[in-house]
Amino acid sequence: MQEIPANISLGLTMGTIAAALFFIANLYVFFHLINQLVSPKKHWKWLDKMRNRWHYVHYLGNVAAFIAALAHGVLMLQYASVFHWILIAVMGWMVFAGFTMRFTKSSPKFKKTLRMFHAKWYMFVIVLVLLIVAHIASLGSFPYSLG
Q1: Which terminal Cβ of the chain has fewer Cβ within 10 Å, N or C?
Q2: Euclidean distance between CA atoms 45 and 79, whole angstroms
Q3: b vs e for 116-136, b when ≥16 Cβ sit within 10 Å of the residue's Cβ?
Q4: Is the pTM of this model over 0.85?
Q5: For residues 101 and 10, what is the distance between their CA atoms, to the nearest angstrom?
Q6: What DSSP element (H or E) covers 21?
Q7: Could you report the average pLDDT of every consecutive run of 10 residues in the chain (147 residues)?
Q8: Alpha-carbon gap, residue 130 to 147, rounded angstroms
């Protein structure tokens, strides 16, 4: 069995860090999506409380996840598929749009337009689908055992 080179090991670690940060940063989004699927007419009070407290975790966590994912992508460049770069572009867009909506004095009309392509359940699903497809597509070219 071939030993994993240090740069590839670091790339895998950055991918794990990116995944953990993404999961934590989007925990509210995930629970909200479940709420909408399971009982769309009933608001979960604990989820409403979480929303109000989770915003900064969401903002900062996703910025950190994007940076870690970008490092992961650069370190793992030789195994990346086009889906990885589409994923990175979508994540970059999400960070840009979220930051612009929250921390700039852009016009309400512009923020409303951004919200259509950021703060919707389908954007979260698009990111998850791209994440899965990208990694399945690259498994065949990865020569090291991960087990």
Answers
A1: C
A2: 44
A3: eebeeeebbebbeebbeebbe
A4: yes
A5: 33
A6: helix 6-25
A7: 88 96 93 90 88 88 96 94 94 93 91 87 90 93 83
A8: 23
Amino acid symbol at 116: M
How far does CA 65 lie from the centroid of its chain? 7
What's the gap between Cα 93 and its chain centre? 11
What local confidence, expressed as pLDDT, does residue 147 receive?
Answer: 67
The amino acid present at 36, given as its one-letter code, is Q
Judge contact between 62 and 26, C-beta under 8 A: yes
Tell me the CB-side half-sphere exposure of residue 42, using CA atoms within 13 A. Answer: 7
Is the Cα torsion angle 35, 41, 47, 53 positive or negative in sign? Answer: positive
